[in-house]
Specification:
Elements lengths: L2 H11 L3 E4 L9 H6 L3 H13 L5 E5 H5 L3 H13 L5 E8 L3 H14 L4 E4 L5 H4 L9 E7 L5 H4 L10 H9 L8 E5 L4 H10 L4 E4 L9 H8 L7 E5 L1 H4 L7 H17 L3
Parallel strand pairs: 1-2, 1-8, 2-3, 3-4, 4-5, 5-6, 6-7, 7-8
The chain binds orotidine-5'-monophosphate.
């Protein structure tokens, strides 16, 4: 998907919501487990049916699918097929290795499967990221400042000139790809850093996880990092949306949770 197609969708739906399909088999409503051969896919299908007009992206965290083996990969593939073609998709895989191996990861998610983007760790440098950029209209979403507490262990570390590691990642990687192929992950749990990061990358999209279950808010993100006329944000919520309910009406409750986030976003779009 192109940058302009993504932007058009955001303004059409008045939403920059990414819904994280982080499906834990132990949290799926029991009636789905009893009734369906592939309860993970059925869960996703019902969530997608109830939310696709409210979000512009689905992020599938690969760990949740890998953790249940071959069946998980099959549920992942079926879910990806089911997502409407005009909705942006993220393989949240956090990959990156020597070039020869990254090439295989890129083939997995861009060739074998048809995701629009993949999350990539930057720490092995340019040759570990380049193979993902060889695919036309596919995006790399580079980890910059993550949402977890441990992000302080390395990412905030400053060099002698006072530049933090996450700042260096953002500055250097801008020479690897333009804003039509590269996004950055910045946690909603660092609202005080959002303005500064937006100044470093005025045109790039930021993928912002950490809203809801991890304590970040849509309002603070929109206030500090929203770009007029381009939005420049995909704000993700996983557990807050998909586990809003745990009974037969779980998908309706997900819709209500997604709508609440979308309406907060609409005020800025
Ligand atoms: O790359 C990510 O998506 C990501 C980066 C980060 O810094 N923090 C973070 O929480 N994530 C992912 O975003 C999702 C957050 O889930 P919830 O906290 O349930 O909304 C999970 O899939 C995480 O793996």
């Amino acid at each position: 998907m192109t940058r302009q197609e993504l932007i058009n969708q955001i303004y059409r739906k008045k939403s920059c919501l990414s819904i994280g399909l982080d499906v834990d088999i132990n949290r799926i409503p029991s009636h789905l487990i009893e009734k369906y051969d592939d309860p993970v896919f059925e869960f996703n299908k019902q969530i997608i049916d109830h939310t696709m007009d409210l979000c512009v992206c689905y992020k599938l965290n690969i760990a949740f699918y890998e953790s249940i083996g071959v069946e998980g990969w099959s549920s992942l593939a079926k879910t990806l097929e089911y997502i409407p073609a005009d909705i942006f998709t993220i393989a949240d895989a956090k990959r990156g290795d020597i070039g020869n191996t990254s090439k295989m990861y890129a083939r997995t998610f861009f060739d074998h499967m048809d995701f629009d983007s993949i999350t990539v760790a930057p720490y092995m440098g340019v040759d570990s990221v380049a193979p993902f950029l060889e695919f036309k209209e596919k995006w790399v979403i580079l980890l910059a400042l993550t949402s977890n507490v441990g992000s302080r262990d390395f990412q905030h570390h400053t060099d002698r000139k006072g530049e933090a590691l996450y700042q260096k990642v953002i500055r250097e990687s801008q020479t690897w790809a333009e804003s039509d192929r590269m996004m950055y992950v910045v946690g909603a749990t660092h609202p005080e850093k959002l303005k500064e990061i937006r100044a470093l990358v005025p045109h790039h999209f930021l993928l912002i996880p950490g809203v809801g279950a991890q304590g970040g808010t849509v309002d603070e993100v929109m206030k500090n990092a929203h770009v007029p006329d381009a939005c420049g944000l995909l704000i993700n919520s996983s557990r807050g949306v998909i586990y809003a309910g745990d009974d037969e009406d779980f998908a309706k409750k997900s819709r209500a949770a997604a709508m609440e986030l979308q309406q907060e976003m609409a005020a800025y779009l």
